[in-house]
Request: fold
Amino acid sequence: MNLKSLVIVTIIALLVAGISLWLNYYLVIRGQLAVLEVQAPEEISNWQTYNGDGFKFKYPEVFGANVWRPTFWPPKAVAFLPVQDIVGAGCPNLVTNAESRQLSDITLSGNKFSLYTGSGVGAGSLYSNYCYITEKNQKYYAIEFEIRSHTGCYNGECGAYCETQNEQECRNFDLKRDVESVIQKIVSTLSLIK
Reply:
């Protein structure tokens, strides 16, 4: 490819990228394009049931809002035999996407879990990872969540959502209340079948 063709291809790529960014900012963030707003229902009786290899749990059919949402849904879950890297085997997104990782022990509905959490940032978004791992009869069970939220929606700030239809939602967003409490409710429904 000659220099003239390379310059033309570069200009076209920059124009496409610029138009994409403009559309994202003005149509979605500035509220010109309606985005479905959904929240996890409080009552779990209508939740879906995830059946895995020797375990099951309940989860809401939809989970998220305009300023935050899971990067995959339903949560990823797996049963596996003991390995050296249980986090890598059970929650690969935490390993690849988290800049920091913390470990705590938690008991939910009688099940003891190792809770691994981490977060990373990219393109104006915060990625919060949650990995719950429990063990029974020499077998591990993991449930993984990854939540993407806008980095400006903390401590009552409105970030890029100022003066948009999603400003109040952004100002009211609380990661612990809106996301982590529901995640714990989901994990608390885990039952080990075998």
Remarks:
- The chain has five helices and nine strands.
